[in-house]
Amino acid sequence: MLTEDQIRHFHTEGYLFLPETFTQEEVEILRTEAEEIYRQQRPEVWREKSGAPRTAFAAHLYNEAFGLLARHPKMIRPIEQIFGEQVYMHQFKVNAKASFTGDVWQWHQDYGTWARDDGMPEPRAMNIAVFLDEVMPINGPLMIVPRSHTYGVLAAEHDTATTSYPLWTLDEETVTRLVDQGGIVAPTGKPGGLLMFHGNIVHGSAGNITPYPRKIVYLTLNAVSNYIRTPTRAEWIAHTDFSPIIPTEEDALINYARRFRQAAE
Amino acid sequence: MLTEDQIRHFHTEGYLFLPETFTQEEVEILRTEAEEIYRQQRPEVWREKSGAPRTAFAAHLYNEAFGLLARHPKMIRPIEQIFGEQVYMHQFKVNAKASFTGDVWQWHQDYGTWARDDGMPEPRAMNIAVFLDEVMPINGPLMIVPRSHTYGVLAAEHDTATTSYPLWTLDEETVTRLVDQGGIVAPTGKPGGLLMFHGNIVHGSAGNITPYPRKIVYLTLNAVSNYIRTPTRAEWIAHTDFSPIIPTEEDALINYARRFRQAAE
């Protein structure tokens, strides 16, 4: 459970970082499965211009380990606590930020897209990043502009040129103004860290030219009452199964990891 | 003067970082002059694909403040101490790494280019970076692979595609192997820091999507006896004036900065 201080920090700053939330055993199986998924040719797996994997959508629906992560009580309970109701999975992806070639994500807010493309009534959906590799200052960490969630949805342009994924991105003047006020934080740390942030937080990440990959699971839990009204995107990008997530037992993922390892030995 | 420990660190690790070597008064005038230079249209000023400034060559020859920096005793004396002889300016540039659009420099060694393109006999030339802006983990700091200078000149490919400046770059396997052994350091700190590194050190830098520009003066001091034998590049890229640099008085740059400020007030 989150403390009162943690909840206040989330509402004031727009994000909350919980280092080393998942164990190394849990993370290791997810990392192995992610590599396996990236080798698959399927519509849910998107690639950089270089051919390196960029993101794998909806992995919780076709991979058992990610399915267990998606219902992990350490992830679900804190978000229920903040929203005061049950949540469902709006989006689930495994972002690669591959070594040497991992590309930029320009500065953007997510709720703008959820509102415009999916008809989500309010920004009552939580972004969550789970670190599968160590996130360092030099391998393209997620950068967040604290307190930028207090300005609502900002004017944005549809960028289809800069990177391999179309995004509604913010202009330089807007980002400069917000950073002047809130600065930039880039939480880093060991695999297993959990970073949650508000749907209106301005965020982005630079490219990665180091030999260190920086895979993160990046998912969005939406309050059930805030289900999307007018979906236009593929089901595996913006889900329309609005049933509340029933968390697993605390040790479901770790037990899976142990069974998997025993079978491999 | 450098201590014995500092000199040993340089020879072992291949680099030495001296934080806040130049005063804020000195750095401020250089920053102002750099902005002025970047506005000029001249062959020495190169730009990114986006049009943002990337680098300004030979600024010490057409700008008085940079001319004084190029002869600053705090820069010249330590290098003379390491090489045991006088030095001359082989290359001098002001790299912009502009906010939002600053582009990547792929992993490379410099001495390979000096040997191949300029006919420099030995790697007895020192790379020096002087920070004009604060260098942070998130605005594209120079990244160095410690101890990579001990492998001599590594095989490299001429990369004319990735970025706006042709470079002899190293392949991913080589960089991975070197990083496995030496790790990566990315010295950061306030404006005025001085980072010196061996001509065979493998280094690079990621792009900069933050609103924080990261200008550095990036220069190469060559031992006079090691002058280049077969120049092929423009004089303002690889200089052929081999006369030893006579350092200025300690306070020459700071006095210039004060005169400049008084004139502006």
Topology as H/E string of chain A? HEHEEHHHEEHEEEEHEEEH
Task: Output mean pLDDT of chain A.
Answer: 94
Assess the beta-strand content of chain A as a share of residues.
15-25%
- Output the radius of gyration of chain A: 17 Å
Distance between the termini of chain A: 36 Å
Architecture overview:
The structure is a homodimer of 265-residue chains. Chain A has 265 residues and is of the alpha+beta class. Chain A has helices spanning 4-13, 24-38, 59-62, 64-69, 73-83, 111-118, 172-182, 252-264, and strands at residues 15-18, 45-47, 53-57, 87-95, 105-108, 125-131, 143-145, 157-159, 167-169, 194-198, 202-205, 216-223. In chain A, strands 1-10-6-12-4-3-2 form a seven-stranded antiparallel sheet. The mean pLDDT of chain A is 94.
In short:
The structure is a homodimer of 265-residue chains. Chain A is an alpha+beta fold and 265 residues long. Chain A is 29% helix and 22% strand.
Notable characteristics:
homodimer, globular, 8 helices, 7-stranded antiparallel β-sheet, about 20% strand, alpha+beta, about 260 residues, 3-stranded antiparallel β-sheet
